Amino acid sequence: MKTAVRYYSRSGNTKAAAEAIAKAAGVPAVSVDSADAAIQEPVDVLFIGGALYAYGIDSHLKDFLKTLKKSDVKKAVVFSTSWISKHAVDIIKKELGEKGIPAVDEFFYAKNKPNSEQLEEAAAFAKKFL
Ligand SMILES: Cc1cc2nc3c(=O)[nH]c(=O)nc-3n(C[C@H](O)[C@H](O)[C@H](O)COP(=O)(O)O)c2cc1C
After folding, report:
1. Which of 21, 53, 83, 122 is least surrounded, with the fewest CB atoms within 10 Å of its CB?
2. Which helix (H) or strand (E) segment is 107 a member of?
3. Using CA positions, which residue lies closest to atom 8 of ligand 1?
4. Is the CB–ligand 1 distance for residue 53 below 6 Å?
5. Is there an atom of ligand 1 within 6 Å of 83 CB?
């Protein structure tokens, strides 16, 4: 099974979740603004994460989502962090939907920086899809 983890994180909270998921999946957690972010070959599962900023997602993540191809991503699994709202999950799923990429209903979410218990939860969550 081919898996990829992509995320965007301004202050490290979503990055921490991404890294726990990536460790569980045995792949690197790659920020969407890094040179190797593009999905180069089709994946079975794309874990994709981002946070909410003023009720929107960062433009880096939005731009990356627009580059995804349905033929390259069999299914997506979303994760997010924020102060309160889980709305980034909806926004990311909407962008995926516009690309015709199915996202599973379940998602991983933590308030701000995931603590060690939540990082373990993130890893266990990821393993359900591997
Ligand atoms: C400028 C700014 C705007 C934010 N707006 C919201 C918001 O509308 N709702 C919310 O629940 N959290 C909001 N947050 C909190 C972030 O989503 C939260 O700190 C998140 O964990 C940041 O993730 P990151 O460290 O991966 O960038 C905001 C944070 C910042 C810095």
Report:
1. 83
2. strand 103-111
3. 54
4. yes
5. yes
Task: Say how many Å lie between the CA of residue 41 and the centre of ligand 1.
Answer: 32
The token pair at 90 is: 């909806």
Residue nearest to atom 30 of ligand 1 (CA): 53
CB neighbour list of residue 116: distance below 8 Å, 6 or more residues apart: none
Identify the bridge partners of residue 49 per DSSP, sorted by sequence position: 7, 79
User: What is the best residue among 6, 10, 53 to mutate for testing ligand 1's pocket, by most ligand atoms within 8 Å of CB?
Assistant: 53
Query: Could you tell me the two tokens for 48?
Result: 């994709």
> What are the extents of the domains in the chain?
3-127
Q: What is the CATH number of domain 3-127?
A: 3.40.50.360
- The string of pLDDT tens digits covering residues 70-96 is 999 999 999 999 999 999 999 999 999
The tokens for 91 are 């926004």
- The first and second tokens of residue 105, run together, are 């209903």
Amino acid identity, position 57: I
